[in-house]
Structure formats: C-alpha cells, structure tokens
Amino acid sequence: MQTETGRIIYYLTDFKSRQDQLKDRPYMIFEDMAVVFGILDADRYTVHPIDVRQASYHGWTTDQLWEMAKKNTPRLLPERIEPADKKIIGHTDDEPVFLLSNDVQRYGSAVICYENLLYNFACKYHDNLYLLPTSIHECIILLDQGSLSCENLLDIIEESNKMLKTDEILSDNIYYYDRLQREFFGLF
User: Fold this and answer.
1) Residue 75 and residue 106: Cα distance in Å, rounded?
2) Burial class (CB in 10 A: 0-12, 13-18, 19+), 108
3) Which of 5, 44, 54, 102 is most enclosed, with most CB atoms within 10 A?
4) Can you tell me the distance from the alpha carbon of 13 to that of 34, in angstroms, rounded to the nearest whole number?
5) CA dist., res. 160 & res. 168, Å (int)
6) InterPro entries under this entry (predicted)?
7) Same-domain pairing of 64 and 150
8) Strand 129-133 to strand 8-14: parallel, antiparallel, or no bridges (unpaired)?
9) CA-to-CA dists, residue 24 to 40, 47, 82, 84, 171, angstroms
10) How far is CA 108 from CA 20, 27, 70, 104, 163, in A?
11) Helix/strand/coil for 129
C-alpha cells in the first residue's frame, strides 16, 4: 500500500469564486487560479482535499505539499493530449486543436503545471501556445500561428463556462505559453 505522502497530488480551481473554501486549505496562487492539494484514492478518481488542520497535524507546509505533489501528480495522473474535434470549436484542419487533461480526465487541467510539458509540446510544433481552460478537468491547446483572435477565444471560454457547474469552472481567462521565454501567463 502506498503511503499517504506518496498519494498527495495537486489540482487547480478558480481562485476568485472559491476564496471561502480556500481559507481552510493550504494553496498557492497560479495566475488567477489556486493550486490546491489532496490525497488521491486508490481508485484514481476520488480526491480527498487536504485542509489546514490535516496539514498542520502532519507537519506539512504548503511548500512541502507542493514538492510532494509535484512528484506524485504526473506519476499518478499522467498527461493525456489528443486532437480535438475541430467542429466543436469551429477551427479548420490547418489549425490544430488539442485537448489536454490527465489519463482519468478528472482535475486534468492541472497538467499545465507539469514540469516541461508545455515547453516540450510547444517545441514539438515550433509554436507558442494558447490555452483555454474549458473546465477544471481539461484545457484546449491552440497553436499560435498568427490567425487566432482573442475575442473568439474568449467566446469559446464563455460558452464553455455556461455549460459547467459553478465548481467546475476554472477561469474566464485565456493563457499563453511563450516557448522561447518559457513563460506561462494570462492575457486578461
């Protein structure tokens, strides 16, 4: 049986709308999102949130949780990147669209924090990336080939968020990954 520390993972949630829940949780800010921690159950689907009391009891600081989760999350929940159905978001065949999640497609948006994942993906295609957080479970990746409009991308996020339960909305922002600078940042 794997120890509790070997099952500590991180996932992303919306910072603005979840501040009440976050006051009792260790977390880190990542752009306009919060990186929160939990213990992944053996079923690889259920996540038991770590609260401040539990962290204090075990002597876990936020930094220690981050270090453990940074090792565990990619190992326990490997990334899954696959081509998306372009009809869903209205792009043409010459504009590749990818869905990014983990292999269980639960809390999969957290894979954007996996070390070197965005860098390696951007280098593979020789382009910078737009990332659209369509939920806490997945993101859409679009290659920046100079033809995308931020207004259209915002419309995609807005439409996606309308279809989600409030606790599944991650953000209403567009993110950009610059492969040369190795920087991830929000555009709005």
Assistant:
1) 15
2) buried
3) 102
4) 5
5) 11
6) DUF5688
7) no
8) unpaired
9) 19, 16, 36, 37, 21
10) 23, 17, 14, 8, 18
11) strand
Residue 138, domain extent: 79-186
Per residue in 15-61, pLDDT (tens digit) is: 999 999 999 999 999 999 999 999 999 999 999 999 999 999 999 99
Beta-sheet strands, E only, within 17-128: 27-30, 33-40, 47-49, 79-83, 97-102
Measure the CA–CA gap between 185 and 71, rounded to whole angstroms.
23
Give the tokens for residue 169.
């909305």
Q: What is the number of structural domains in the chain?
A: 2
Q: pLDDT tens, 105-153?
A: 999 999 999 999 999 999 999 999 999 999 999 999 999 999 889 999 9
Q: What is the pTM of this model?
A: 0.92
